[in-house]
Amino acid sequence: xxxxxxxxxxxxxxxxxxxxxxxxxxxxxxxxxxxxxxxxxxxxxxxxxxxxxxxxxxxxxxxxxxxxxxxxxxxxxxxxxxxxxxxxxxxxxxxxxxxxxxxxxxxxxxxxxxxxxxxxxxxxxxxxxxxxxxxxxxxxxxxxxxxxxxxxxxxxxxxxxxxxxxxxxxxxxxxxx
Length: 177
What we know:
The chain is of the alpha+beta class. It is built from 4 helices and 5 strands; from the N terminus they run H-H-H-H-E-E-E-E-E. A 5-stranded antiparallel beta sheet has the order 4-3-2-1-5, with no helix packed on it. Strand 2 and strand 3 form a beta hairpin. Helix 1 packs antiparallel against helix 2. It starts with a helix and ends in a 13-residue tail after the last strand.
């Protein structure tokens, strides 16, 4: 009896997944202004929700308590959320490093300036190295020109950045008090 119920749950989940993903595909064909970048994750999310629900139903049919399953699931999600929050800055810098490598907003040897705001100068320097967490600049401002400054990669996507190609160092600006 349980085997039949499990097979029925899996068959219904497969059928529901096929119908819904086909419907999402037809929705994209009917409305071409919907971007494919939206439809692909929507199909994936639908598939995972249906398969996850089917898995939970199968476990319940096999005798695992729904309360135990729900407690385990919420505990896992809570721990995952805390862990994700704890390493967010590391993940942010890694992702921004990938964007710097892929998009190439600047290269090694370029002169860049990270602006604090439109009216305040920021850190200006020649790019010496780009790694997964920091971009190292040779400081062209400040009290000790020539020192190295490590800037977290995520900062390049949070602030305005000026860039001069080929290391052409711009003339120093006079800062008015």
